[in-house]
Design brief:
3 helices; five-stranded antiparallel sheet
Length: about 140
């Protein structure tokens, strides 16, 4: 059996669950794209537009969030406090509520959320039934 012959779970329900968690925290999510790259890597990206009235301090007007199955989550804002992309780290499929909480803290207090360059990464060409099962849970939960 080749590496690509295993059943791949749809990543759109996972991305939708993350989106719901973020939107529940007064951050509008727009421009959502859920794709598969030319080399068959599952990816997603969207724009975050925080409700400035919902946050006590200064926050960026807009930020970009992205996910792929090899690198997990990263966030970039047009705010000099945040600088370059910040990586969530420590796994490519964190719980959607954890991603949402991370995004809020990162937008409101970037100094408290360093980029995790020691992040664990996936290897999308390699069959990983455990990863596929965790990803498939989001489709079956109706998230």
């Amino acid at each position: 059996m080749g590496a690509r012959e295993h059943r791949r779970a749809d990543h759109a329900p996972y991305i939708a669950a993350v989106r719901c968690g973020i939107e529940a925290r007064d951050i509008r999510v727009t421009g959502v794209t859920v794709t598969t790259s030319a080399d068959d890597r599952r990816e997603a990206a969207f724009t975050l537009r925080p409700d400035e009235a919902a946050f006590a301090g200064r926050i960026p007007r807009e930020a970009s969030a992205s996910w792929d199955e090899d690198n997990g989550w990263s966030l970039t804002a047009g705010d000099e406090r945040l600088g370059a992309a910040v990586h969530k780290g420590l796994g490519v499929l964190p719980d959607p509520e954890d991603v949402a909480a991370w995004a809020v803290v990162l937008l409101a207090h970037p100094e408290l959320t360093p980029s995790r360059e020691d992040r664990l990464t996936g290897d999308h060409p390699v069959a990983d039934p455990g990863f596929e099962a965790r990803l498939a849970r989001y489709a079956s939960s109706g998230a």
